Amino acid sequence: MSKSNNSLTSLALQKFKKNVWGVFSFWVIVAIGLVSIFAYVLVPDDSKNANQMHLSIHSKSPGFKVLMLEIPNNIKDESTWLSKLFFGRNNTTTEIPISDYKIEGESLVYTEYTDDGLVGQQKSINISTFPNAEAESYIKERTFVFGTDKYGRDYLSRILIGARISFFIGFVAVFISLIVGLFMGSIAGYYGGKVDAFIMWIINITWSIPTLLLVIAITLALGKGFWQVFIAVGLTMWIEVARVVRGQIIGAKQLQYVTAARALGFTDFRIINKHILPNIMAPLIVISAANFAAAILIESGLSFLGIGAQPPMASWGAMIKDHYNYIILGKPHLALIPGICIMILVMAFMLIGNALRDALDVKG
């Protein structure tokens, strides 16, 4: 039996490797996952939520460059290296975009950056403000690869950090939907009768409510926030899992190996958990991949409506909401970049779901 299972697994793996788009999608998902985990190592602005605002350089085009003066504010960052790795650092400097500067005696004289050819306000600061009086080392040219958003924040940093919500909501939502769906579907399919009728009644009522409306209702009940959205999305995606599990178990419980397990005196829990569920995992894997994509789209929709992840937390859906009107103002990249990111991630999960379906098809 073990050899048979191993041969079927290896056969499915070989079929999956031959699917070019499936393998490509797999590595795209792995890459986005690594970016999500180690975002603060990769981003130019590693402050918490990449929330360094510079209103004087708002809505700049990709590739924009400016001199940035960093003034120490005597605040110590006491967060650990692990906290900085996953949650960013506390701001210990005040950043000011400048157009030029000069040193006059004991003062650093700089001109603030302004747009539209205007001359910025000239200000000065004592050199002793900087450690070891090395003022020029605190002036660096900053390049904004994706430009800046309407608050002057680095858009590349916001995009990379925003990948976390879209990526991890898929895992959390699918995990919750699997737990609830497996439980409800297993009970309904295995026991049948009134239990099946009652659970199907719950499924039909839940299924009749529009998904987005149900998510909004759950989100409002739990409150706005990061984890509340994750839970709300997960609690609306168990229906498909439950229906698939129920149908598979109704067919599987009539097979000989289930009859043999009952004759040996095994408990219902063991028969379902150890014998039936391992044999119906193929359709569950496929539907889980589809639910990943659906969860990402639902979260993006919630963030667009303003009831998803709350500011200043970065979210691709919220970025589209903040900048969709810039499409007609000549700066469409502010809305298109997060939209393309959502499209790539959703497409990757859909393609890998199709590849898994083909690989796990025993008739193919």
Question: Layout of SSEs?
Answer:
Layout: H1 2-17, H2 20-37, H3 39-42, E1 64-72, H4 81-87, E2 93-104, E3 107-112, E4 122-126, E5 139-144, H5 155-191, H6 193-208, H7 211-222, H8 226-234, H9 238-252, H10 256-263, H11 268-276, H12 281-305, H13 316-323, H14 333-359
Antiparallel strand pairs: 1-2, 1-5, 2-3, 3-4
Domain ABC transmembrane type-1: 163-353
Transmembrane segments: 20-43, 167-192, 198-222, 280-298, 334-356
Keywords: Cell membrane, Membrane, Transmembrane, Transmembrane helix, Transport
End-to-end gap? 21 Å
Q: How many strands appear in the DSSP assignment?
A: 5
The averaged pLDDT comes out at 87
User: What is the tally of helical segments?
Assistant: 14
What is the domain total for the residues? 2
> Helical percent range?
55-70%
* Order of the strands making up the biggest sheet: 4-3-2-1-5
* Beta-strand percent range: 5-15%
Largest sheet: 5 strands, antiparallel
The CATH homology group name of the largest domain: MetI-like
What structural class results from the helix and strand content? Answer: alpha+beta
Q: Residue ranges: pLDDT <50 for 5 or more in a row?
A: none
Protein name: Peptide/nickel transport system permease protein
Keywords: Cell membrane, Membrane, Transmembrane, Transmembrane helix, Transport
GO biological process, one term: transmembrane transport
Organism: Winogradskyella jejuensis
